[in-house]
Amino acid sequence: MPIDDQLAAAVDIARAAVDEAADTGSVGSHLQASADADLLVSHHFECLKPGYGGWYWSVSVSRAPDSEHVTINDVVLLPGDDAIIAPAWTPYRDRIRPGDLSPGDVLPPDEDDARLVPSWTAGDGDEQTDDRFFAREVGLGREWVLSLEGRELAADRWQAGDQGPEAPIAQQAAGVCHSCGFMVSLAGPLSERFGVCANGMANDDGRVVSFDHGCGAHSGARLSRSAGAQKLPDPVFDTLTRDEIDGL
Questions:
Q1: Short-list 34, 24, 77, CA closest to 54
Q2: CA–centroid distance for 82 within its chain
Q3: Whole-structure pTM value
Q4: Starting from the edge strand earliest in sequence, which strands make up the sheet with 71-79, in order?
Q5: How far is 235 from 89, CA to CA, in rounded Å?
Q6: pLDDT (tens digit per residue) in 209-244
Q7: How far is CA 81 from CA 57, 78, 84, 157, 244, in A?
Q8: Pair type for strands 71-79 and 27-37
Q9: Taking the domains of the chain in order of start, what are their residue ranges?
Q10: Whose C-alpha in 61, 70, 150, 178 is 20 to 30 A from the C-alpha of 116?
Q11: With contact defined as beta carbons under 8 Å apart, do 75 and 17 qualify?
């Protein structure tokens, strides 16, 4: 886009406008003039404000087609390509992570949360569901329960987490949780894959664990060697017993 010569030459007028609007000593040298539209030009000046490296002052000037009078439209401070700016705003719901909630905080589910369904529809389409389990919820229990998608999301998260089979402690475990006497069974649709650890000495005490998880505190764990006292060999130099000398 061609730039208007008269507006491009209005550097002094633009500087006077930015000097009046900005703090003293915060305006540097003229950087460039660029055409924004017909008879509309922006003059850019270096910003010397502390903490605003890479920013620049922009003064927009214009004139009427049949006039030589230059008009100041606005003076703004803008970030350049190398400017340090605040990151894009992330909604609170997208920033929160497990464990961030403090006492008194509230985090309601979305109105269309795919993880929840009305309790009276929870068993639809699930051939492995015990109808008696869901019948208990209808009319007498919870209004909302986990949907099929909600269950799968939870199962995948638990399976891939620290209480799943890929955890380092499970890779070197003496046995899996499914055969451990400290595992408490769950009820409901996730009971075929997960239980709760009830070993107070285990790392996962009170947590949901997958059946193929495991740790060294398995109820069937045994030491590979005896922990009893071992008989030591005779010492090379006996400094404990008395020497017997003939004639004494």
A1: 77
A2: 27
A3: 0.54
A4: 27-37, 40-47, 55-62, 71-79
A5: 75
A6: 999 999 999 999 887 665 566 777 777 777 777 767
A7: 14, 10, 9, 40, 96
A8: unpaired
A9: 5-79, 150-210
A10: 178
A11: yes
Non-local (6+) Cβ contacts of 109 within 8 A are 115, 116
What band does 174 get if pLDDT is binned at 50, 70 and 90?
A: confident
DSSP-based helix, strand, coil % in the chain, nearest 5: 20, 20, 60
Neighbours of 30 (CB within 10 A): 17
CA-CA-CA-CA torsion sign (190, 192, 193, 197) = positive
**pLDDT per residue over 43-93, tens digit each?**
999 999 998 999 999 999 999 998 999 999 999 999 999 898 888 888 877
pLDDT above 90 covers a percentage of the chain that reads 58
Listed in sequence order, the residues at least 6 apart from 158 whose beta carbon sits closer than 8 Å to its beta carbon are 164, 194, 208, 210
Classified as helix, coil or strand, 33 is strand
Residue 125: band (very low, low, confident or very high) from pLDDT cuts 50, 70, 90: low
The C-alpha atoms of residue 237 and residue 242 are separated, in whole angstroms, by 12
Would you say residue 139 has pLDDT above 60?
no
Which residues make beta-bridge pairs with 116? 146
State the amino acid at position 110 in one-letter form.
D
